Amino acid sequence: MQALRNCALCSTEGLLCSRTDFLQLRSNMAVFARGFSSVGLLRNTACILSSRRAMRRKLPAWTRADCISLSVSGGLCALPFYKQVEDLSHEAIIRRASSLVTDSANTYLSQTTLALVDALTQYTRALHTLIALQKRYLTSLGKLTTDEEDAVWQVIIGQRVEVGDKLEECKRYEANWANATSLCELAAQAAHNAGANEASATTQSNLQVAQSQVEQVRQLSLVAERKLAETKAEEIQRVAEFAASMEKSGEDMPEAYLRED
């Protein structure tokens, strides 16, 4: 009986030892597998770094490559990204400076164009107001009293003064605008010579637009000036005819009609 117990105990101990050896074997195999993976990982990393160095050698002089290492599915992945280095050559600096000059010239042109267009518009309106006053005066020729004639002439004289002031304002702004157009032409030429073709083309385009806008408003003012001249000629003729009729009737010409315009 004792012999049977001893035999069973030995068998149990044998099984325990076999299980322990089996677990130890599995543990050793796992360690070996991890070590093998680490070796493979190091090998992949070395290949990536070697490829990165080769890539850096092949890059052009004006770029610089940096790499971002990411962990993807247990491995390393190096992603290159490129950053352009600022060009500080003399040609690049001159080109940039010429672009800045065109920007300033465009701003100057824009402001002077706006001022001149507004001044011409105000001048044209003043001309049309004067034309309307003089036509109203002609229609009432011989129908107004002396006091009414004086009041009308005061209004006409005041409007003529305003027309003269608006004309002087136009001349002043037109001188500034002429300087701006000359500056834009020089800036566009300088930008073209420096290689800033886009800035040069933009300035030339802005110059053409400004000239077109000013020309349109100037034509309107010229039309108003011609109408005023026609009204003036009509006024002289009507006053002469009225004076002749007064002379035939033996009446004196009212003083208001003897004013010089």
Question: If you had to describe this structure to a student in words, what would you say it looks like?
Answer:
With 261 residues, the chain is mainly alpha-helical. Helices cover 80% and strands 8% of the residues. Strands 1-2 form a two-stranded antiparallel sheet. A hairpin with a 2-residue loop joins β1 (63-72) and β2 (75-84). The longest helix is centred in the N-terminal third of the chain and has 57 residues, at 2-58. The protein starts with a helix and ends in a 13-residue tail after the last helix.
General shape: rod-shaped
Oligomer: single chain
From the N-terminal CA to the C-terminal CA, the straight-line distance is: 155 Å
The overall pLDDT average reads 74
Q: Taking Cα atoms only, what radius of gyration do you get, to the nearest Å?
A: 48 Å
The helix content, as a percent range, equals over 70%
- Can you write the helix and strand succession as a string? HEEHHH
- Major β-sheet profile: 2 strands, antiparallel
Which band does the percent of strand residues land in?
Answer: 5-15%
Count of runs of 4 or more consecutive helical residues: 4
Show unreliable segments.
Answer: 1-23, 35-39, 54-83
Number-wise, the strands total 2
| Strand order, sheet with most strands | 1-2
Look at the helices and sheets and give the structural class: mainly alpha
